[in-house]
């Protein structure tokens, strides 16, 4: 297992940790994503009690009022002791499994074949509640892994308020869950409990994971449940989301 020292600042707190080999992927059906990274907001439903959010959506240029998205934190609260990032987007290079995975790298604005990790992994105690970032349809994925290996479980929300320029859905994937808390295919609202985190080798659905964590992906794809392709880097988005939650009015993120 390749170890990499990484650090990140979330909500003003510098976090660091040792990276581990934790990723899971069904690469067999990965498809090339050709979509633009720009996102448009649909069916806005702003809360009258919240001022317009200043949150920047890192992978879009054209969301002008993020309040309309009704975004919520995927886990925890700003400044929680947990939340240590152990694997950053693109950082994983200890295996050849992902070498042909196409990833939309927002740092270059281009679709690339990245020998790396198309998500970030955050240390969470096993059993931590995971919530929907946006409203959408929740799915239970129980074969989210490298074919032939231990099968990991993932909870996916296909958003109904975030779409890319071509109308393809934006999906949020929470990997290594040990428990699903909504039926497959059920519509959820932002902030609704989706699942409990796992990743400890003793947890069901841990797959290849060797420590308790959540693997968080943002996916742009016409088939987000089949192809783990067209991902965008969730790092800055999460930083912005938690930073906003730390300073914004209660109940607005
Ligand atoms: Zn991961």
Compute the gyration radius: what is it?
Answer: 17 Å
**Overall mean confidence score, pLDDT:** 71
Assign the CATH architecture: Distorted Sandwich
Please mark out the parts with pLDDT under 50 across 5 or more consecutive residues, or reply none. 1-44, 93-101
- Tell how many strands the DSSP assignment holds: 16
Q: What is the ordering of alpha helices and beta strands?
A: EEEEEEEEEEEEEEEEH
CATH class: Mainly Beta
Straight-line distance between termini: 37 Å
Which secondary-structure class do the elements indicate?
mainly beta
Number of helices: 1
Q: Note the overall shape.
A: globular
Helix content: under 10%
The amount of beta strand, in percent, is: 25-35%
Main sheet overview: 9 strands, antiparallel
Instruction: Assign the CATH topology.
Output: Glucose Permease (Domain IIA)
Protein described:
By secondary structure, the chain is mainly beta. It has a single domain (5-247), classed as Glucose Permease (Domain IIA) (Distorted Sandwich). The protein is 5% helix and 31% strand. It has one helix and 16 strands. The strands form four sheets. Strands 3, 4, 7, 9, 10, 11, 13, 15 and 16 form a nine-stranded antiparallel β-sheet that branches. Strands 8-14-12 form a three-stranded antiparallel β-sheet, with no helix packed on it. A hairpin with a 4-residue loop joins strand 5 (102-105) and strand 6. The longest helix is centred in the C-terminal third of the chain and has 13 residues, at 235-247. The radius of gyration is 17 Å and the shape is globular. The termini are far apart. Residues 1-44 and 93-101 have low confidence and may be disordered. The structure holds zinc ion. The site of zinc ion has 7 residues, from loops.
């Amino acid at each position: 297992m390749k170890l990499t020292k990484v650090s990140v600042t979330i909500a003003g707190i510098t976090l660091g940790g040792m990276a581990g080999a934790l990723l899971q992927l069904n690469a067999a059906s990965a498809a090339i994503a050709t979509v633009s990274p720009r996102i448009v907001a649909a069916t806005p439903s702003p809360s009258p009690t919240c001022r317009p959010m200043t949150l920047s959506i890192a992978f879009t240029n054209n969301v002008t009022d993020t309040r309309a998205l009704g975004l919520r934190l995927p886990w925890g609260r700003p400044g929680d002791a947990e939340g240590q990032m152990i694997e950053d987007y693109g950082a994983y290079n200890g295996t050849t499994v992902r070498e042909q995975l196409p990833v939309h790298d927002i740092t270059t604005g281009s679709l690339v074949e990245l020998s790396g990790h198309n998500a970030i992994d955050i240390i969470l105690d096993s059993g931590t509640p995971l919530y929907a970032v946006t409203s959408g349809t929740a799915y239970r994925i129980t074969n989210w892994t490298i074919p032939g290996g231990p099968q990991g479980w993932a909870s996916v929300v296909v958003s109904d308020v975030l779409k890319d320029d071509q109308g393809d859905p934006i999906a949020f994937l929470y990997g290594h869950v040990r428990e699903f808390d909504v039926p497959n295919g059920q519509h959820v609202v932002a902030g609704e409990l989706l699942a409990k985190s796992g990743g400890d080798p003793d947890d069901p659905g841990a797959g290849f994971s060797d420590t308790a964590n959540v693997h968080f992906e943002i996916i742009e794809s016409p088939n987000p449940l089949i192809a783990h392709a067209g991902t965008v880097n969730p790092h800055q988005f999460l930083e912005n989301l938690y930073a906003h939650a730390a300073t914004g009015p209660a109940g607005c993120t």
